[in-house]
Amino acid sequence: MVKKTRGFTLLEVVVSITVLALTSVFILQMFVVSDNVNKKARAIDNANMVCMAAVESFKNGSHPHSTFKENGEFYYNNNWEPTDAGDAAYVMKVTVSRGDADIYLIGTSVYAYGAESADELASIAASRYFADIKTAGVSR
Length: 140
Fold this sequence. Notes:
Elements: H1 10-60, H2 64-67, E1 72-76, E2 82-83, E3 90-98, E4 103-112, E5 120-129, H3 133-136
């Protein structure tokens, strides 16, 4: 008499489910990591655009003190819209200084706001020549 078996044994089912569960954990972990990397890349891209907009405003302005009254900080929320410090997720620090021969320098840096050890997301520096301050009609 020949005994025919159909289907899988309980041990085979348990082993296959264990293998499936272990591989699923690694695949799901890759999705989480890729989402975090994507968020960081978006933040860096937006930080570069904000820095570049500040530099372009500086380079196209009539005088650095008319564009940026003083060195300061500008705050942005998670959607990169300007906001106050209370709702800020990012901060752009701007420094304007005068170099030699009426050449002004601007430096912009964007950081995550409120982080204890925030890494710099973007930084851009530029310079521009401006006519003598007396002829530009702007006082320091």
